[in-house]
């Protein structure tokens, strides 16, 4: 399972401006759909609606045919995993941070997730940047490493539906490639919605929607969109 459908979805944060103006698409179970578009187009709003941080103002969102408004918060949290742009880490070991999404996971499962995300070299370390009674301590993680901790956490949780918010633009190309590889592993076989900033990072998506001003301006696979210019 895990088919996600947006049906003529409309949304305003307040009575004023409409942010999403009738968005329709489907992510069939196990497939990947990418949303690209300029800043302010409504990409993050769309993912917030999927998590039901807000309810749609018009139209509907369904998972396997069930209206999101009829799905409990618990099932929604179990069904959807998020790899956010910026990961907040707890003042504990990397292993603890990976385990956070699934406290009952075995040590071996945590290690396997870390290996797949390529952070197995330092899972016993604690991230730096926390003020404790003994002062600052721990390991300084780069943005890319932090994101791979988030990827490992999601791998361990193994939700049927994934939302990937890509923030690879500020990273060097080697780190970007490592993250891309890890994201590819995490999304394999799952229903995946990728929020991306550039077409170049979503080459393998089954469908790409170009969002502009709250509407779908273009849609197609990577080659089709390139051909359109
Ligand atoms: P994107 O992710 O494509 O950059 P967003 O979904 O973040 O776009 O934002 C779309 C529009 O909604 C923007 O004009 C933004 O200013 C507005 N917006 C985002 N969050 C809020 C909010 N909490 N309240 C009011 N307006 C918001
Ligand atoms: P986890 O780390 O396993 O995702 P959290 O308690 O952090 O657990 O989050 C629970 C759920 O909240 C996630 O599975 C996801 O559905 C949602 N969520 C978490 N972080 C974000 C985020 N940055 N943006 C949107 N939704 C989020």
Automatic annotation (TrEMBL):
It is found in: Cell membrane. Residues 4-229 form the ABC transporter domain. Belongs to the ABC transporter superfamily. This is ABC transporter ATP-binding protein/permease. It comes from Xanthobacter flavus.
């Amino acid at each position: 399972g895990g088919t996600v459908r947006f049906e003529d979805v409309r949304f305003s944060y307040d009575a004023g401006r409409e942010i999403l103006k009738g968005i329709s698409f489907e992510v069939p179970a196990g497939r990947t759909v990418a949303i690209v578009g300029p800043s302010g187009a409504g990409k993050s709003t769309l993912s917030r609606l999927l998590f039901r941080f807000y309810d749609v103002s018009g139209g509907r969102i369904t998972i396997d045919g069930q209206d999101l408004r009829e799905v409990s918060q618990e099932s929604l949290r179990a069904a959807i995993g998020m790899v956010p742009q910026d990961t907040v880490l707890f003042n504990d070991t990397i292993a603890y941070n990976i385990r956070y999404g699934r406290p009952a996971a075995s040590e071996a499962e945590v290690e396997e997730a870390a290996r797949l995300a390529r952070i197995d070299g330092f899972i016993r370390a604690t991230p730096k940047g926390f003020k404790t009674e003994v002062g600052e301590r721990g390991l300084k993680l780069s943005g890319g490493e932090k994101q791979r901790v988030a990827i490992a956490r999601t791998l361990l949780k193994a939700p049927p539906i994934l939302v990937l918010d890509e923030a690879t633009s500020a990273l060097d190309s080697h780190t970007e490639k490592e993250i891309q590889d890890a994201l590819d592993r995490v999304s394999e076989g799952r229903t995946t919605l990728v929020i991306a900033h550039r077409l170049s990072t979503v080459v393998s998506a089954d469908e790409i929607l170009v969002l502009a001003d709250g509407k779908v301006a273009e849609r197609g696979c990577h080659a089709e969109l390139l051909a359109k210019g």
